[in-house]
Amino acid sequence: MTDRPAAASFDDDGGVLGGLEPNQVRVRFPPSPTGLLTVGNIRSALFNWAFARHYGGKLVLRIEDTDQSRNTPEALQYTLESLRWLGLNWDEGPEVGGEFGPYLQSERMDLYADVVTKLLDAGKAYHCYCSQEELDQRREAARTAGQHSGYDGHCRNLTEEQIQAYVDEGRRPVVRLRMPDRPIVFDDLVRGEITFLPENLGDYVLVRANGYPLYPLVNPVDDALMEITHVLRGEDLLPSTPRQIALYEALAEIGIGNGRTPRFGHLPFVMGEGNKKLSKRDPGSGLGEYMERGFLPEGLLNYLALLGWSIAEDRDVFTMDEMIEAFDIRKVNANAARFDPKKCEAINAAHMRLLPADEFAQRMIPFLAKAGVLPVEPSADQLAVLRAAVPLVQERMNTLSESVDMLGFLFVDEAAFALDPDAAAKVLTGDAGAVLEASAKALTDVEWTTEAIEAALREALIDGLGLKPKNAFGPVRVAISGRRISPPLFESLELLGREKSLHRLNQARAE
RNA sequence: CUUGGAGUAGCUCAGAGGUGGAGCACCCGGCUCUCAACCGGGAGGGCGCGAGUUCGAUCCUCGCCUCCAAGUCCA
Question: Which intervals of this chain are the motif 'KMSKS' region (predicted)?
Answer without folding.
Answer: 277-281
